[in-house]
Amino acid sequence: MENYTMEGRTYRYYGQDAPLYPFGYGLSYTTFQYRDLVLSPPVLPVCANLSVSMVLENTGQRDGEEVVQLYLRWEHSSVPVPRWQLVAFRRVAVPAGQETKLYFQVVAEQRAVWAQDWRLEPGTFTLFAGGQQPGQQMRAPSEVLSTRFTVTGAARPLRGC
């Protein structure tokens, strides 16, 4: 085998076709609301990590657990990349009527692209946070928040950070 590209071989690279059972698929006995998605800093150097915080509220009548998922999308990349990539997830138990503030760290390595070696590139990125993949259709409502951030500086090999 000489062609190691993933395009057309895994659902992350299928284009606009959604997988039948995407990550996080399922139902819950309660409902959740996401709010106050904050990225720090919103503009960061090419080798820096990104801090993410948000509030998750259980708006239902029962205690429940939610799998909070963070996805990253490159707006422009020099090489083919997935539509979005899972960069963090956490199962969180939230009692009925309560809320919790969550913190995540997206490290620079998670923004690396393969171009004969792992490279970090500047540009605009979108971060999605919620109980499902971006654009996923489910029977149970679950929202996905999104916001953009910018990476500045020159492209460099990952090992150079």
TrEMBL record:
UniProt GO molecular function: beta-glucosidase activity
Pfam families: Fn3-like
Keywords linked to the UniProt accession: Hydrolase
InterPro entries linked to this entry: Cellulose_deg_GH3, Fn3-like, Glyco_hydro_3_C_sf, Ig-like_fold
Domain Fibronectin type III-like: 66-133
EC number(s) from the headed UniProt entry: 3.2.1.21
GO biological processes: carbohydrate metabolic process
Reactions it catalyzes: Hydrolysis of terminal, non-reducing beta-D-glucosyl residues with release of beta-D-glucose
Domain of life, source organism: Eukaryota
PANTHER family: BETA-GLUCOSIDASE (PTHR42715)
Family membership noted in the UniProt record: Belongs to the glycosyl hydrolase 3 family.
Protein name per UniProt: beta-glucosidase
Species in which this protein is naturally found: Grus americana
